[in-house]
């Protein structure tokens, strides 16, 4: 028994030392192989890739929404507006006797980061995140007769209703009257704000909040529309209320500045329209006599749990749009155009030649790595800010590929450092100019060559939070039903060398590093 144990231990030690010896000679497999002691070889497979314009993408009931105007140096002007319901925070509210509005405030938090204070008072200071552009935009708010369903009447109310980014013309056809609010030059502020919340009796509580999209709305409209409806059926429940006041249209438009676009934390529970009012109450005074006193009250119309969606307006420059539309799915492209939001994507067929695929399947290869390397077309960027990551998915089944699922670098707390094996962050030169993106498809390609996975087309988009695996529907594209939801959370765009690039060294190819047994 002891002899058997000694033999087992000796065998294990030999295996360990053999592994260590091999590991000393091993070189990581990447875009370049300097030393190749393990006989790792490279083959390059010609792919087929082309751009696809996205004109209509589902945007309803997201957590975050863009508002404002973005001027992109490649893709032109893009304007984001919001259509939203209002939700009663309490059904059949009691505003007291003779209620009169003092003020009405709309609040939707920004994304912000606390920074070290430089003020003498030591007050908390903030830096705004997800604000793009240094200009401003024209902001207006309208009441509309457009009703936002939760369930789709065309499916006999069995499926969730979808609303799309290209539906602004329908909204504008349903605008009721003049705008409720107009600001010709709205610009986000990083200043925190202070609220005076009604406390007990006639005393207000002072509460400080992080920066937010904050508007003072007219009291006359809300006095008539809400306060004066106390005790009527329209405030009895939210079903009645959403038929009575169907939706608000928060509209952004270009003004004379370069514009600004802001990502709003719409699902934050502080997203609401607050009505501050006074009312009367009969009370017994110290002498035992009844007297009328004036008290303060507050009532909220919630936004954070309301049906809502983004609309987008704006077109790509005509020559750029024509180039995208002229790209032939069967012949490849010189340049590939990527733009997030209601923008454009890239479709890649990694094995367009069935004969080549069958030849590869006949080899006895161990696939060490397979990747798609997208080189940045620097001459086409025109100074555009470059996205840090690309995202690849199965465009035919609307699912992530195996390399995304198996990536061990998942970082839930910091998406910018997550899934970096699958989607390598943008490689930059010493001047911080982008050089290339790498998307690893090792498991996906190996599975195709084994015959376990079909050779499907893959979609490439610009992601925001790469940890978000959900998808959003699109309309009007024959071969695309959905795109990754995270592409709606940033306004970036770029241009990449395609598989027919004039620069042959930067052409998009599938690179397979293998060991031939």
UniProtKB/TrEMBL annotation:
InterPro entries: DUF4270 (IPR025366). This is DUF4270 domain-containing protein. It comes from Christiangramia oceanisediminis. Keywords: Signal. PROSITE patterns: PROKAR_LIPOPROTEIN. Residues 1-20 form the signal peptide. Pfam families: DUF4270.
């Amino acid at each position: 028994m002891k002899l058997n144990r000694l033999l087992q231990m000796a065998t294990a030690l030999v295996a360990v030392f053999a592994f260590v010896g091999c590991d000393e000679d091993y070189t990581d497999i990447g875009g370049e192989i300097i030393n190749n002691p393990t006989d790792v070889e490279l083959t390059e497979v010609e792919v087929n890739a082309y751009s696809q314009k996205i004109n209509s993408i589902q945007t309803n009931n997201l957590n975050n929404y863009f508002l404002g105007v973005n001027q992109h140096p490649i893709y032109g002007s893009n304007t984001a507006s919001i259509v939203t319901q209002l939700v009663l925070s309490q059904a059949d509210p009691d505003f007291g006797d003779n209620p009169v509005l003092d003020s009405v405030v709309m609040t939707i938090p920004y994304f912000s980061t606390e920074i070290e204070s430089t003020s003498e008072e030591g007050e908390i200071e903030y830096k705004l995140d997800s604000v793009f552009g240094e200009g401003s935009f024209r902001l207006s708010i309208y009441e509309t007769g457009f009703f936002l369903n939760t369930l789709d009447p065309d499916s006999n109310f069995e499926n969730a209703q979808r609303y799309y980014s290209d539906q602004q013309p329908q909204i504008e056809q349903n605008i009721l009257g003049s705008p409720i609010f107009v600001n010709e030059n709205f610009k986000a502020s990083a200043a925190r704000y202070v609220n005076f919340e009604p406390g007990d009796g006639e005393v207000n509580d002072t509460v400080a909040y992080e920066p937010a999209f904050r508007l003072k709305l007219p009291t006359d409209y809300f006095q008539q529309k809400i306060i004066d409806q106390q005790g009527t059926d329209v405030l009895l429940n939210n079903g009645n209320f959403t038929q009575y006041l169907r939706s608000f249209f928060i509209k952004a438009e270009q003004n004379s500045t370069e514009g600004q676009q802001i990502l709003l934390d719409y699902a934050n529970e502080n997203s609401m329209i607050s009505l501050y009012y006074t009312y009367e109450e009969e009370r017994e005074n110290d002498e035992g006599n009844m007297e009328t006193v004036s008290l303060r009250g507050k009532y909220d119309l919630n936004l954070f749990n309301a049906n809502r969606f983004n609309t987008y307006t704006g077109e790509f420059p005509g020559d750029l749009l024509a180039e995208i539309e002229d790209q032939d799915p069967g012949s490849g492209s010189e340049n590939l155009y990527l733009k997030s939001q209601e923008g454009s994507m890239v479709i890649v067929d990694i094995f367009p030649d069935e004969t080549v695929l069958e030849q590869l399947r006949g080899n006895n290869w161990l696939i060490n790595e397979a990747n798609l390397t997208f080189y940045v077309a620097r001459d086409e960027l025109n100074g555009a800010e470059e996205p840090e990551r690309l995202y690849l998915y199965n465009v035919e089944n609307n699912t992530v590929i195996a390399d995304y699922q198996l990536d061990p670098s998942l970082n839930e707390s910091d998406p910018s450092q997550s899934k970096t094996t699958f989607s390598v962050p943008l490689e930059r030169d010493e001047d911080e100019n982008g050089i290339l993106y790498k998307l690893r498809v090792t498991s996906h390609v190996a599975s195709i060559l084994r015959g376990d996975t079909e050779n499907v087309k893959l979609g490439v988009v610009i992601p925001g939070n790469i940890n978000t695996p959900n998808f959003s529907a699109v309309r009007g594209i024959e071969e695309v039903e959905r795109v990754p939801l995270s592409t709606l959370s940033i306004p970036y765009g770029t241009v990449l060398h395609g598989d027919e690039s004039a620069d042959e060294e930067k052409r998009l190819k599938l690179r397979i590093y293998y060991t031939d047994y």
